[in-house]
Structure formats: structure tokens, C-alpha cells
Specification:
The protein has a single domain, classed as Alpha-Beta Plaits (2-Layer Sandwich), CATH 3.30.70. Helices cover 22% and strands 36% of the residues. The termini are close together. It is an alpha+beta fold. It contains four helices and eleven strands, in the order E-E-H-E-E-E-H-H-E-E-H-E-E-E-E.
Length: 197
């Protein structure tokens, strides 16, 4: 499993209805994309749910590198780059994926938590802590799914979870809460569950 995300920070007075309309118009195009586990079309709006910014930030879980590369290099990503400029694309190696207790519910909110892996820690222990946290999040009321991944170029873990409601407790611990505008999940059932090593 590979995780990927890019962010488009929008002006404070930006009409986020433009993003909503865009997702309504093109979101379905990845509903059957080969190699894609899931894509969540995510939005933060300034002043909503504590967000200080307007931010469009789709998050992906990929089953195959080929599917991810076909998206980035095969034309689908070109439209976004043409319209907004080419954003930096963050990529993480998967550590864990868990179906949540509300796995069959529609995802309305997403939570992203990024944490540094401190110097001097035992790598296996830090990775296991990330796996354990994904499992804990997946067991919380309203959790649709939870995943953990790591960026070893920055030594940073990311926890990504989807929720049927908008106030998971983890948001109080420095997480960023997003509205989910659409989910394309052609390969969600094929995402490998549990620990990824």
C-alpha cells in the first residue's frame, strides 16, 4: 500500500463552491481507476471546524505503484496541474490499514495526523506504535477506516482515518479535520489489512 496527498492552499476569500462543483463534475472519473484503493476528495474551509485556511487536499491509498504512476504521468493529474499549477505530491509507504467499526457507513469527514519519528528511537517500535494507533482509531465509534504510513525522507508518520461524523477525539490531539466531498474506492476491498511488513 502506498499513500499519497497533495495540497492546494486557496485564498482566504476563495469561493469553495468552485471546488465542490469541480468534484461533482470530475470525481467519478477515478471510481474505476486500476490500482487505486481509494481516493478521498478533501476540503478544509476557513472558519469551519476550526480550520484557519481554505485547502483542497485529496488523499489516496494505492494498491499498485503502476496505478499511481498512471494517474500522475498518464494525464489524469494533468488537468489539476493545468487549472491550479502543479503541486508537490507527498508519498508515504504503507504501515497499516484497518477497516473501521463503521466500515459500511458513508465517510463524511477525514482526519490526518502527522507526527515526527524522533531521533534515537528503535525504528521497529515506532512503526509498531503507528500500527497500534491505526488499530485504535479503527475501533472508535464512527470510524470508517484508518491507515498509517511513513515518509522516511522526513521520518514522519501520517495517520489517515475516515469518519461518519465530524468530531473524532483524535482531532483534539493536533489532527486536521477535512470534509469529504467524494470517495472513489475501486480497490478498497483489495487494500491489505493489518500490518504491512
Amino acid at each position: 500500500m502506498h499513500a499519497m496527498q497533495y495540497e492546494l492552499t486557496l485564498p482566504a476569500d476563495y469561493d469553495t463552491g468552485i471546488i465542490r462543483a469541480r468534484v461533482s463534475r470530475v470525481g467519478h472519473k477515478l471510481d474505476d481507476w486500476p490500482g487505486l484503493g481509494l481516493k478521498t476528495y478533501l476540503l478544509r474551509e476557513r472558519g469551519v471546524h476550526g480550520s484557519p485556511v481554505n485547502l483542497y487536499a485529496p488523499f489516496y491509498l494505492w494498491n499498485t505503484v503502476e496505478g499511481m504512476n498512471a494517474f500522475l504521468w498518464g494525464g489524469a493529474f494533468q488537468g489539476l496541474s493545468d487549472d491550479f499549477g502543479r503541486p508537490a505530491v507527498r508519498q508515504w509507504t504503507g504501515l497499516s490499514y484497518e477497516q473501521g467499526v463503521a466500515a459500511d457507513s458513508p465517510a463524511r469527514f477525514a482526519l490526518r495526523q502527522r507526527r515526527p519519528v524522533p531521533d534515537g528511537v528503535v525504528h521497529a517500535e515506532a512503526a509498531q506504535e503507528a500500527v497500534d494507533e491505526a488499530r485504535r482509531l479503527a475501533r472508535e465509534e464512527g470510524a470508517v477506516l484508518a491507515a498509517a504510513a511513513v515518509d522516511t525522507s522526513r521520518w514522519e508518520t501520517v495517520h489517515f482515518s475516515l469518519w461518519e461524523h465530524g468530531d473524532p477525539d483524535a482531532a483534539k490531539d493536533g489532527g486536521e479535520l477535512f470534509q469529504v466531498l467524494h470517495v472513489s474506492a475501486p480497490g478498497r476491498s483489495a487494500l491489505p489489512g493489518g500490518r504491512q511488513w
